[in-house]
Amino acid sequence: MTTPSELLELATRIAVTTGDLIARRRAEGVRVAASKSSLEDVVTDADREAETLIRSLIAEARPEDGFLGEESGAEAGTSGLTWVVDPIDGTVNYLYGIRQYAVSIAVVEGEPEPETWRALAGVVVNPAADEVFAASVGGGATLNGLPIRVAPPVDLSQALVGTGFGYLAERRVEQAKVLVGLVAQVRDIRRQGSAALDLCAVATGRLNAYFERGLKPWDHAAGGLIAAEAGARVSGRGGASASSEFLVAAEPSVAAALESVLDEPGN
Ligand code: LIP
């Protein structure tokens, strides 16, 4: 039976190789290949090329595992393990040349559903920053091989809080209304454009908290494990599993304080 740390070692090799590829493609120039849920929700040639490379490397090493990727969908395996992949998280940042994008690869046990899966290994690589965030279940979290931990507890009024918005304008309006009620109750808000890197920012203490509604499994599969292994509470509402409905990640007391504000009517 392959251990979580062995899975992490393979996932890291694949993610770093893919990070090198997308950095080269970025330097060569990026082209939009198509749009998905809206004109703002784009996929680039590099997204597709990166996911194809990741799938081939996984299939070569572990042909019996399942796959769930943002661009090419799902394929069941026979091993009970599934690789959950976002080849470029922060695609719009990548398109504009904003250096906040990442390859996100996780290995989960059980059905590839955030509500029920057990994440075993996760790696998030930002090639523009030469940063490799990694974690295996029970093995702690690292940045470039060095241990990372969430920031110490703070009062919510002093918390730097990350969030994100969906690709549909009407959803963004509702999400912005939540911020109107929140912005005066925290230190400040950051919208950095990559859920995977926002979760890694919580893991390293660069953010005190992160929350978002509407995330896809591949957005948070790896970063969620990294943040949890760094000491964050990563959950949905009321301690349920994180899901597309809601995700919060923070040091536990900050997560509870943030969630209680977000639970107020109108949020
Ligand atoms: C992005 C997420 C981000 C969210 C964006 C988008 P993508 O993923 O990482 O947090 O706010 O709307 O979903 O589309 O760049 O892979």
SS field, number of helical segments: 7
- How much of the residues is beta strand, in percent? 25-35%
CATH architecture of the largest domain, by name, is: 2-Layer Sandwich
Termini Cα gap: 45 Å
Q: Order of helices and strands, N to C?
A: HEEHEEEHEEEEEEHEHEHEEH
Largest sheet: 8 strands, mixed
CATH superfamily of the largest domain: Fructose-1,6-Bisphosphatase, subunit A, domain 1
Fraction of residues in H or I helices: 25-40%
> Numbering strands along the chain, what is their spatial order in the largest sheet?
4-3-5-6-7-8-9-10
Mean pLDDT score, rounded? 95
Number of strands: 15
The geometry reads as globular
Instruction: Look at the structure and give the CATH class of the largest domain.
Output: Alpha Beta
A few lines on this structure:
This protein has 267 residues and is an alpha+beta fold. It is built from 7 helices and 15 strands.
Describe it:
There is one protein chain. It is built from 7 helices and 15 strands. The chain has about 270 residues and is of the alpha+beta class. The strands form 3 sheets. The chain has an 8-stranded mixed beta sheet, with helices on both faces. It has a 5-stranded mixed beta sheet with strand order 12-11-13-15-14, sandwiched between helices. Strands 1-2 form a two-stranded antiparallel ribbon. The chain is globular and about 50 Å long. The relative contact order is 0.14. The model has no long low-confidence stretch (mean pLDDT about 95). The chain binds L-MYO-inositol-1-phosphate. L-MYO-inositol-1-phosphate binds near residues 70 and 89. L-MYO-inositol-1-phosphate binds near residues 70, 164 and 165. Its cofactor is Mg(2+).
